[in-house]
Amino acid sequence: MIIDIIRRASIIVALPLMLASCSSDTDAAKPLSIEELNLINDGEGQMRVTTIDNHADSLLLRSKSTYFVDDDLRSEAYATLAARMVTTVTDPSQDGVGIAGPQVGILRRVVAVQRFDKEGEPFEVYPNVHIEAVGDEMAVGSEGCLSVPGMRGDVERYSKIRLMYTDPVSLMPVEEIVEGFTAVIFQHECDHLDGILYIDRILE
Ligand code: ZN
Questions:
Q1: Which residues are CB-neighbours of 168 under 8 A, at least 6 positions away?
Q2: Does the annotation count 36 as an active-site position?
Q3: Which residues lie at CB < 5 A from ion ligand 1?
């Protein structure tokens, strides 16, 4: 979770780095398990946030997430998960701008992101998400994460990305270009889906 606004301290052009995360769609989709359904349906409102200082959580946070099957995207369970992720990240105790499935114990490619690039800055939820960098421009900003309590650090992120996900209503693939701080949030959250934490990317 990224807590504050990106600090555009430096812009580095022409770094031929590839995004390590969110660029693979080769992981097979599989139906939600009984355990996942139980976790999604075990209550209302916010879900417990996983943290790296808990051993079981840390193993989960370092695991790769899988894709949803279409039937699950149409299900009440998915709608419940999406709503509870937004409730969790917007709760005053968290007050974040993004959250990923593994942070609520669900190893699925789903993120909730606050769209600072849209009017009203709504939270939106993106299933079967992956992203790729557009261009070489990068910027450094300060990040924190609810799953890494008590820390912050500077991370370099791409300034522009291509966002790809499945529309949960039409089940059609959607593509969109996202820039600026919102693009940074997507990169942080999509890293979670590959078991990567921002502390892996902190600049020395
Ligand atoms: Zn995070």
A1: 73, 74, 78, 79, 82, 125, 127
A2: no
A3: 1, 145
